[in-house]
Amino acid sequence: MVDGTGIESQKPSNPELARSMYSVYYKCYALLYQIGITPSGCAVWCSQARSPKLTDTEQSVLAGLLEFVWPGSRLVLDIGLHA
Q1: Do 5 and 36 meet the contact criterion of CB atoms below 8 Å apart?
Q2: Measuring CA to CA, which residue among 64, 83, 76 is closest to residue 6?
Q3: Splitting the chain (83 residues) into consecutive groups of 10 residues, what average pLDDT does each group show?
Q4: pLDDT at 81
Q5: How crowded is residue 40: how many other Cβ atoms within 10 Å of its Cβ?
Q6: Rounded distance between C-alpha atoms, residue 31 and residue 54, angstroms
Q7: String of b and e for 46-79 (b: at least 16 CB within 10 Å)?
């Protein structure tokens, strides 16, 4: 299973960066991480911090998760709209 978690951040001084980091979902400036967890509950993968404007699926693909998945494996991701 892969899901995102947001961590609150300070407001960036760059206006463009501030727009990309503000999350209506979290109601603050945030960084979003994707975390992969096995069925037994072990965390096995964590992405770099990214903008909360991207969905969980977009975050995971950009972070290269598919490079670590064996052919025929199954992943569970929610829609993850964090605009």
Answers
A1: no
A2: 83
A3: 89 95 92 90 91 84 86 75 52
A4: 55
A5: 6
A6: 11
A7: ebebbbbbbbbbebbeebebeeeeeeeeeeebee
Where does 1-83 have alpha helices with state H? 15-21, 56-62
Residue position matching structure tokens 């929610």: 78
Residues 81 and 53: beta-carbon distance below 8 Å: no
Structure tokens at 17: 């960066």
- Tell me, yes or no, if the pTM score tops 0.85: no
Pair of tokens at residue 76:
């569970």
At residue 25, the pLDDT reads 86
- Residue 30 β-bridge partners: 8
